[in-house]
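Action item from last week, closing it out:
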Amino acid sequence: MSHTVLVVEDEEDIATPLVRALRHEGYQVTWADSGAEALKRLGGTDPAEVVILDLGLPDLDGLEVCRQARESGYDGAIMIVTARAAEVDRVVGLDLGADDYLAKPFGLAELQARVRALLRRASRSPARAAEDSLRIDVAAHRVYARGEEISLTGKEFELLAVLVASRDKVVPRDQLMAQVWDQNWFGSTKTLDVTVGRLRQKLEAAGAVEKVVAVRGVGFRLESHPD
């Protein structure tokens, strides 16, 4: 049986090629052009496995759709796609329950690859996924893995929050230095490597499936390594 995808996008000229490309991949795809319609479909007896959710909807903000969907028990994958570039939107979206975040404009090949990755991640048992995956509470400055809180320093938490907001994407070293330390920082960037090293050790010790991966000469990426 093919996987199911719900595209939530109010602009037909954007939704049509998305739906066409995903159907070409073999998915069963439905389209909702409003937040209310999306919530109705997600609250049905057979909701889609993956939701591609635009934030700029005519009735409800996409973040509100994400929040209500999670509160009502939807446990499928949610990928936010939006033209909003602010880090706060990414962090809030992830904190409300989104699994991935893709900024517009994007290539269809990248979107298809991300859908495949979300489906692979979802193929693990729900209990194991919930047990292992990181849960970050931005407001409370707390991080959990396998149901247990991970003790992080302030800089370790800020670093992880930036990486989580760009999950599976490389964040350049200079961007990390500017966001976690200070854009006018003139000290050695070795402090970044030391902090990454400590964060990596704490995640591994906690048994989180997420790993901080170094991309030589570029920066760092947070990615999941399911069993």
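Closing note: The domain at 133-224 is CATH 1.10.10.10 (Arc Repressor Mutant, subunit A).
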